[in-house]
Design a protein that fits this description.
2 domains, 5 strands, alpha+beta
Length: 205
Amino acid sequence: MAGESRAMTSAPIHAEIAQAAARLVAEEGLEYGPAKRRALKLLGLPARTPLPDNDVLEDAVREHIALYCADTQPDELRTLRGLAVEWMQRLAPFRPHVAGAVWHGTATRHSDIYLQLFCDDPKSAEIALINQGVSYEPGSAPGLQGAPVDVLSIACPSRALGVVVGVHLLIYDLDDLRGALRPDRRGRVPRGDLAALRHLLENDT
């Protein structure tokens, strides 16, 4: 009985955290991890409070968009997908795949674009940006297997959105592409290539 009571108590807290985090994701462009941690602070909850998983948060983001952003989000998503297509065309030799909110359809004007590049030479994408005169900031982020990978971040102004969109290029070895298209926990393809993204755009319109 005690275990059932704890589960019943934690369920509303999880929902409250997810709703608060979803607002931060949709309206401020936070990524899921930072959004959940900030939601704890906003709700005055202890730092060790169990957090909802990413699937629960994604559902909450979709609910938030449907309630508060339904009139603007579809156009913003199309604009971000169009911008992603432009960069994927520019980086076509590196087998770009789009992931995250732009791929899954939950992006708003505050969202960044995440492109995963699968390169024969990990430095080749960086050299290509230099040759194209593109300014970027190097960094790192957790990769497909959790280990850190190099990230090249570009600030890309968007007239249509009236904001500067972050375009983040995650650099992988070519061999990593083999397992990159395995379905996620919900049975979805977790990322898409240029042809797949174009198909989404055609369906959107």
